[in-house]
């Protein structure tokens, strides 16, 4: 009986790992698509001007994902090397590190008592 329980726990851990890996891949795909929308000139790098010139809907979605109204602060955080541009990997990794939780849920910028939770797959309808 103990061995059966241990086997089940191992299987559960493996299933959770596979689910986490699939969830992360989906999140990265979503962020890459957002990056391409923001990258006006197709250079493979974002500038603050490109973020400022992005469609309002895209800007709003980005603000909600990272729970901030200050896109300049977000840009500065993502541009950790201070080069004035953000590559696709910097963008995706930075946003994932800033927003993901172990449950796979992102928190939108609201006071603790009014927080709204959204799963990545539900973000774009």
From TrEMBL:
Keywords: Calcium. It holds the Pfam family EF-hand_7. The keyword Metal-binding does not apply. It comes from the Eukaryota. The keyword Calcium applies. Residues 26-61, 66-101 form the EF-hand domain. This is Voltage-dependent N-type calcium channel subunit alpha-1B. It comes from Durusdinium trenchii.
């Amino acid at each position: 009986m103990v061995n059966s329980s241990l086997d089940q726990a191992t299987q559960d851990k493996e299933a959770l790992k596979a689910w986490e890996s699939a969830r992360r891949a989906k999140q990265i795909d979503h962020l890459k698509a957002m990056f391409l929308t923001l990258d006006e000139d197709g250079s493979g790098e974002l500038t603050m001007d490109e973020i400022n010139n992005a469609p309002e809907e895209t800007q709003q979605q980005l603000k909600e994902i990272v729970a901030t109204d200050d896109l300049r602060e977000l840009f500065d955080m993502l541009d950790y090397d201070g080069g004035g541009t953000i590559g696709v990997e910097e963008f995706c990794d930075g946003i994932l590190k800033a927003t993901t939780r172990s449950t796979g849920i992102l928190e939108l910028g609201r006071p603790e008592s009014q927080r709204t939770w959204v799963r990545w797959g539900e973000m774009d309808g």
